[in-house]
Amino acid sequence: SQQGEEDPQALSIQEGENATMNCSYKTSINNLQWYRQNSGRGLVHLILIRSNEREKHSGRLRVTLDTSKKSSSLLITASRAADTASYFCATPAGTSYGKLTFGQGTILTVHP
Amino acid sequence: NAGVMQNPRHLVRRRGQEARLRCSPMKGHSHVYWYRQLPEEGLKFMVYLQKENIIDESGMPKERFSAEFPKEGPSILRIQQVVRGDSAAYFCASSPWDTRTSGANVLTFGAGSRLTVL
Question: Which of A10, A89, B87, B100 has the fewest CB atoms inside 10 Å of its own CB, making it the most exposed?
Answer without folding.
Answer: A10
